[in-house]
Each structure stands twice: as structure tokens, then as C-alpha cells.
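R.M. (postdoc): so does anyone remember the format we settled on? I'll just put the C-alpha cells first.
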């Protein structure tokens, strides 16, 4: 188990800022000894998940198989994608779906109309759950005890000036989202970005994922987001729920 844990740590150390690393780089990034990092990297090279030129190491496309296996087993993208595309066509905005992974949301499906954020979002992209509309919806689907645990571990690192930074205020916000059945955020993740999200449920009524519509504040007012886009989003979520219930 320790070897598996360390091997995954090595894979997760690669990112946009560190697409290629030397053995010394990997040891610093993971906190592993050089000998352990070397052994794990060479094992991953043998398995085809990492390649090397003798000095630096990089991920190979085979790593995508791991993520694809999860997305395929989830079945959500295949079910939700047609509904998401239809919603995007109606509201002329980007539509996404995500699941909760620790303190982050992970995008599992997306229909992109135009780039509205400073970063490019795609399947597999991660964002902080506390300051995203989908994250708030997913947190609202947890028990009170799970929310307490999440907030107790949360590192307050607000991404935008409008971000809520008070733990108790976040707790109240999650409770509000749970009561009303959706989350609406106004420029809490990034200045100029507004979004509204709704939960997606399995056949037992448990929150499986979240779906959202992202807009730019200069183009869509809060009134339009709440009065025009939100009803469309909720209707789409209900349609997807009805299909998920048949799984």
C-alpha cells in the first residue's frame, strides 16, 4: 500500500508548472528520498506511465487511461452530455459538470462556448470547492458532519476579492444552498465570473455530481442569471436526474 501511495504521489507531482522533472526535482516536489523517487520513476517508466531521456522524466499519454476509466465507470458524462449541449444552445453559455474530490471539484463533462475565465477549463480540471457554485452544491449534498470536517480542514486562500473568507459564513451558505436547491456565485472564484449550479442525483436521491452554467458579469446580470438561466438549468438537472434514475 505504501508503494502504491508513493507511486500516485509521484504521478500527481507532474503539473502545468512541472511537466518535466529531474530526479532531484521529483524528490523536492514529493518529499521522497532520491533513491525512493528513482525506484518509483523507473517502475512507472517500465509500466508505460512515464518516459525519460535519461535525465528528465515526463508523463506519457497512458496516464489518461486512469482518468478515462473513472469517467467511463461513472456513466454521467454520456448521460448528461446531450442535455448539457441542449442547455448551452438555449442559454448561449458554457455548461459543466463536476464531482467532489477532497477540497476540490473535478470537471467530468463540459460544453464550452467561449473562454470566460483566466484559466482554460477541460475535463479533469480542478477548482476549489469552497468558492465555486458546483462546489457549494456538492458540499450541500454532504451530511452536516461531513461539512464540518470539510470546513475544519479548509485552508482559507480566497481566489477573488468577493470570496467568502469566514468559515461560519461558508457554513451558512452551504445550508442555504441545501435549502434552496441551487448555488449562485457572483465573482467569488474570479472577478467578472458569475455562475449558477444545481445538483444531479442518483436513483436513491443522493447528490452524485453538480451541473453549472458559467457567465461573464459584463454580459449577464444577476437578474438574468437568476430569472432566465437558473430555470433552464434546474429543468435540465431534472431531465438528467430522470435518466440517472434508470441506471
Amino acid at each position: 500500500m505504501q508503494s502504491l501511495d508513493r507511486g500516485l504521489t509521484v504521478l500527481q507531482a507532474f503539473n502545468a508548472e512541472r511537466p518535466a522533472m529531474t530526479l532531484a526535482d521529483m524528490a523536492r516536489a514529493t518529499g521522497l528520498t532520491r533513491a525512493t523517487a528513482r525506484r518509483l520513476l523507473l517502475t512507472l517508466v517500465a509500466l508505460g506511465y512515464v518516459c525519460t531521456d535519461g535525465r528528465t522524466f515526463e508523463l506519457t499519454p497512458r496516464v489518461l487511461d486512469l482518468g478515462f476509466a473513472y469517467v467511463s465507470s461513472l456513466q454521467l458524462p454520456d448521460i448528461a452530455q446531450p442535455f448539457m449541449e441542449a442547455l448551452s444552445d438555449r442559454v448561449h453559455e458554457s455548461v459543466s459538470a463536476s464531482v467532489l474530490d477532497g477540497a476540490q471539484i473535478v470537471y467530468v463533462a463540459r460544453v464550452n462556448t467561449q473562454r470566460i475565465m483566466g484559466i482554460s477549463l477541460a475535463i479533469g480540471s480542478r477548482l476549489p470547492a469552497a468558492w465555486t457554485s458546483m462546489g457549494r452544491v456538492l458540499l450541500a449534498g454532504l451530511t452536516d458532519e461531513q461539512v464540518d470536517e470539510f470546513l475544519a480542514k479548509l485552508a482559507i486562500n480566497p481566489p477573488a476579492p468577493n470570496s467568502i473568507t469566514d468559515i461560519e459564513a461558508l457554513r451558512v451558505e452551504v445550508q442555504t444552498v441545501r435549502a434552496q436547491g441551487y448555488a449562485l456565485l457572483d465573482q467569488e472564484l474570479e472577478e467578472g465570473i458569475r455562475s449558477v449550479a444545481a445538483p444531479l442525483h442518483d436513483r436513491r436521491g443522493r447528490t452524485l455530481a453538480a451541473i453549472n452554467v458559467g457567465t461573464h458579469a459584463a454580459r449577464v446580470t444577476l437578474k438574468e442569471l437568476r430569472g432566465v438561466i437558473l430555470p433552464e438549468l434546474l429543468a435540465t438537472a431534472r431531465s438528467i436526474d430522470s435518466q440517472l434514475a434508470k441506471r
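R.M.: ...and that's the designed sequence above, right after the C-alpha cells. Also worth knowing: Strands lie at 20-22, 50-52, 56-59, 94-101, 104-111, 126-128, 183-186, 193-201, 207-216. The chain has a mean pLDDT of 90.
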